[in-house]
Amino acid sequence: MSCYPKKALALFCALLLVVERTSTAALPPGQEGFMSHVVPFLKENCIKCHSTDKAKGKFILNSLDGNLSAGRDLERWEKIMKALKSGEMPPEDEKQPDEKMRETVVQWIENGLHANLAKATRDAGAPTARRLTNFEYENTMRDLLGFRLKLIDKLPEDPVKPYHFNNTAEFMLIGPEQIDRYLECARQAMASAIVDPGTPEVHRTSKILTPKNKPKEQGVEIGVYASAGQGEVSTGLNGWPKTGEFKIRVKASAILPPGEMEVPLRVVMGTMLRSDGGFGVYEPVGTLQLRNDPAQAKEFELRGRIENIPVEPAALTAKGPQPAKIFIHCQNVFDNGELNDHRKSAFDDSWSGVAPRVLLESVEFEAPVTDVWPPAHHTRILFDSPLRKSNPEAYVRRTGRLGVASI
Q: Domains in the chain, start-ordered, CATH in brackets?
C-alpha cells in the first residue's frame, strides 16, 4: 500500500483540528459570545438543575453575567470551567453536550478569565499596603510579647535608596524569604514567651573584686577603655538558661579628678574580647553614669534577655574541650575627645591615670528572674481556663482568638 494515502489522511486530520481550534477561538469574547453561545449551552445542559427554582448544590447559573473582564462572578465561572473540563457536569446519567461545543464554552471562559487578569494588571496602581520595616517589626514584637528580642539580624535587610523615603509601599514589599524569616522569628518568640510549668533552675554567678596582692582592699580600679583587656573587667558566667530575663548587679563608684563630674560605666555581655586576635562580639546591657565617690559605693541593677546575648561556642583546644562561654564586660568608656592626643602607642594607657576611673567592687548575675512563675508573657497566651482539661480543642481555639485580638 502506498504511503501517500496515509499522508493524506494525516493531513486531513490535522486540518480538522485546525478548523476545530479556529472555530473555538472564533467565539466572540465578552457579552456577545455569552449571549450567542454560552447562554444557549447553559440553558440546554445546566439551567434545569441550577436555577433559582432548583439549585442543586446551592449553585445558581441563571444570574450569571457574561462580562468576565469586569471581574464579576469569577469564582462561579472558574467552578463551571473545572466541571466542564473534568466531565463532572453534566452528570453521566444526563444528556451530554456536543464535545466540540463543550470545549468552545471552556475556551470562552478561559479567555474571559485571562482578559480579567490582563485588565487587573493594567489597572493596578501603586501598592498602598506595605510590610513593616525590620525596626518596626522588632518593636511590634516587643509590644506584643512584653519583652525585647533581637530579631533584626534574623531578617533580610531592608532596601535602601539614597535620598528617598525607604519605608514606603514601593520598597516595603514582601516575598517568600521574608515569610520564611517571619516564621523563624515567630518560633523563637513563642519559645521565649511560653515556658515550662515547673519552677526553673536559677543560674547565679557572683564575683567580689580585690586588687592584686591587696586582698583586704575592696574594688578594682578601671581606667579608660582603650581596647579589649584595657579599661575593662571581665567576669565569666558559671551557667545560664536558654531563655528568660536576667539581671546584673554591680557595686561601683567613681574616682573623679578635679573638674570632672561623672564617669560612664558600660556593661556588655558576649564572647571574650581579644585585642590581639581582633575578635569578639557582644550585646550592650546598659551604661551607668557614676557620680558617687568610693566612700558611698552603690549597687546598680541592669536587666536584659539572655536570648539576645552572643555565646562563645564550645571548642576543642590544645587544653582539651572547652565549654560554651558568656562573659560580662564592665568598661570605663569616658571620652572627652582628647584621650588619643596623649597616647604614644596603641598600648599606652599612662594618660588614663589622670582621667576619671571606675572603682568596681562586685558583679552578680542571676537568670531567669521573674516576680511570678509562670511569667505574665506566658499566662497572657496560655491562660487558666476549665476548657484546658474539659475541652482542649475549644481551649486552643480560644487562645488563638486572643492571640489574633492582641495583634
A: 4-123 (no CATH), 134-193 (no CATH), 203-367 (2.60.120.260), 377-406 (no CATH)
